[in-house]
Amino acid sequence: MKKFVDLSMLLEEDLPSDPPVQIPKIQRLNHKDTAPQMGQYFPGATVDDLPEGNGWAIDFVQCCTHSGTHLDAPWHYYPTMNNGEPAWTIDQVPLDWCMGPGVKVDMRDKPDGYRLMAKDFEDYFKKINYELKPGDI
Question: What whole-number distance in Å separates Cα of residue 133 and Cα of residue 109?
Answer without folding.
Answer: 25
